[in-house]
Design brief:
With 172 residues, the protein is α/β, with parallel strands linked by helices. The protein has one domain. It is 34% helix and 10% strand. Strands 2-1-4-3-5 form a five-stranded parallel beta sheet. Helix 3 packs antiparallel against helix 4, helix 3 crosses helix 6 and helix 6 runs antiparallel to helix 7. The longest helix has 12 residues.
Length: 172
């Protein structure tokens, strides 16, 4: 039995992706995350993964993740410019440079599925077991961790957003 703390995971689904390929729906089916039906119901103080956030996710966000959870906004990459506006009490963070391992966007930088984004966040914050649990539900899940092993390890080893951005420069 794991002694690693557990982070609450939340999904806000815009319903823009193919339900058969939707990693969010699969995470919900396996009770790995909670569905949030309206933006108003996002947990106060939660970390919202936003590719356009000004600050990168880092270990300094670990306490907020444990206390309030992580939210993935499930929407199509084709509509990313319409990213929903969220309340000011939510902590918006971007993920650093990583490669997708999902069959649709394999090897493409930053085109992660919701499951990959959640798992990457968990790894960076130091919750590797929970990340592996999320990815275990996908045939390509372990490949994501292998493909990004070095950068994820390095991002997790530093404390601040600025340090994560510095590490990221080695991969861009």
């Amino acid at each position: 039995m794991s002694l690693e703390p557990h982070v609450s995971l939340f999904i806000y689904d815009e319903g823009q992706c193919d339900p058969k390929k939707c990693t969010s729906k699969k995470m919900l089916r396996f009770h790995l995350a909670y569905e949030v039906r309206t933006l108003r119901h996002l947990p106060h103080g939660a970390i919202v993964l936003n590719p356009m956030a000004e600050k990168a996710l880092s270990r300094e966000d670990q306490e907020a993740a444990l206390a309030h959870g992580i939210v993935v906004m499930d929407l199509s990459w084709a509509n990313i410019e319409t990213f929903p506006k969220v309340r000011r009490d939510l902590v918006q963070r971007a993920l650093p440079y990583l490669l997708a391992a999902n069959p649709v966007n394999w090897g493409k930088p930053m085109k992660l599925t919701s499951a990959e984004a959640i798992a990457a966040s968990l790894c960076i914050l130091g919750f590797k077991e929970q990340a592996a649990e999320v990815l275990s539900k996908f045939s390509w899940g372990e490949q994501f961790l292998k493909l990004n092993a070095e950068p994820l390890e390095r991002y997790a080893a530093v404390e601040t957003s600025a340090e994560v951005v510095e590490v990221q420069k080695d991969y861009i």
